[in-house]
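Interim report, section 4.2 (structural modelling).
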Amino acid sequence: MRQREREAMDNRGTFSAIFLQSTWKYLVLYGVMICLSGVFLFPFLWMVSTSLHDLPGVFAHPYRWVPDILNWENYVRAVTLLPFHTFLFNTLVITASVMVATFFSCSLVAYGFSRLNFRGRNTLFSLCLATMMLPAQVTMIPLYILYSKIGWIDTFWPLIVPAFFGSPFYIFLLRQFFLTIPRELDEAALIDGASRLRIYWSIILPLSRPAMATVMIFTFIGTWNDFVNPLIYINSTENATLTLGLNLLKSQIVGTGMTEWNTLMAGSLLVMIPNIVIFFLAQSQFIKGISVGAMKG
Amino acid sequence: MKISHDRRRNLQGYAFIAPWLIGFVLLAAGPMLASLLLSFTSWTMLSPPSWVGLDNYTAMIQDDPLFYEGLYNTAYYVLFSVPLGLALALGLAMLLNLKLKGIKLFRTIFFLPSVTNVVAVSVLWLWLFNPDFGLLNTFLGWFGIEGPLWLQSEAWSKPALIIMSLWGIGGTMIIFLAALQGIPPELYEAAELDGASSTRKFFHITIPMISPAIFFNLIVGVIGSFQVFTQAFVMTGAGHPGSEGGPNNSTLFFVLYLYKKAFQDFKMGYASSLAWVLFLVVLVFTLVQWRYSRRWVYYEAGER
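Predicted structure of the assembly:
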């Protein structure tokens, strides 16, 4: 009896010790997490704050995080100094076209690589994966020359047409997903006399919604944010994309006496918003896409 | 009958992968070959290209200080941003792997910067690094530290871009997190029964188990860092085309130099030879890492 009582006491003692220890641990961990979150968030908060100041407020010492008057007109100035409505329209046209093209090209190719047996399939697939490693700079100059020969410089074509030929990473991602769909479904449909194209369209695509969604989100973000390609191929302001337009705005504002950081921050924030919205709507798709890409690679 | 069946099957397969196959020839293999040929020519796009043999390469090695400047700056950037980024991303991933309440919110916060627009981020950091009014030096001022001139200083411009790159390690972190979540808890339980310390568990279970993810992030990180361009292009030069890469060429990274040669000076032959040097350097680095990976990357049986 007595021994058991003592054991119970001991247990209670260790229990509270562990409890105390873990409470401290939790507090420290949360403290660390909150500090780190601050590091990641403060630039954004500062951006919002600057974007709402008037110019003297931007350069005030000491800086005030919340201005007395919220200068929303900075946002109007940011999008009217240069024709941002044109940039938005251009970006929408390019992004929508690239998304449609990627949807069909990548899924068709991935279907071929995952479901059809043909000579040299594995070699070709390895080749497809290898092109992911190819630095864009190696093909950049000949492609520029090619596009300039056929008169495509300062048009949307160099930004859209390559999407019709698929993108290795998305082909890879979709192939991995298609491989998880039972082959029996294809075979049953084949026996019923369905064509390969019909199986691709009515069986594989509907079953691959999550993977297709991931690819579409990646494509949207990638195209919307692309800077290097528009920089190389687009020369005129009226054909610029949002990302390129933001750089034009920066070039116009920076280095001219008192830099209008408030206008620049307002413009940058507006360009970021679609990303942030998509990110919050589809965070799990992002995480899945990135992890699958890495794990299977 | 058999042959025609095989041929039909092959044709069907090629038809499905045709988009990629055509794209591979027109947009990858063809241009690659063209770029190699161009690298042996001198061409400004005005007159026809003239064959100069290895002149571009010898000129680069013998009398182009900017070539070495670009190599040095890029090596500096890769050498610091990749290991620091990997370590920080792994640290964050390990924190996120703890079973804490509200962990998803923290994950979102750490991940967010990496999915935003790179030009918008560059403009934001240009302002954060402002020596007189920027958030960074204001913050340092609270501790009585007078911050450096950051992007306006030859010594601090590269560290500034490296610091900025650490803000965007969300993708790397997510990959580490997925790998950490894939470690069977029994391994840790067994180690705890044997009385293993946290450090021991970290080096003998965590690191080997996530070594494929470390390897992947290392390869992708090195390839990506070798191609650093946009940040330097947007954040340096104060809006005057042609002056990017300053101060005093301290942020003239290899790809930025290549871009300026190709699209500001229109020296297409020389720029192509620069591209091939970059390609070979990246290729050698990747192959070396691949080769040494067998010594330290652990794949569970059956995974490969």
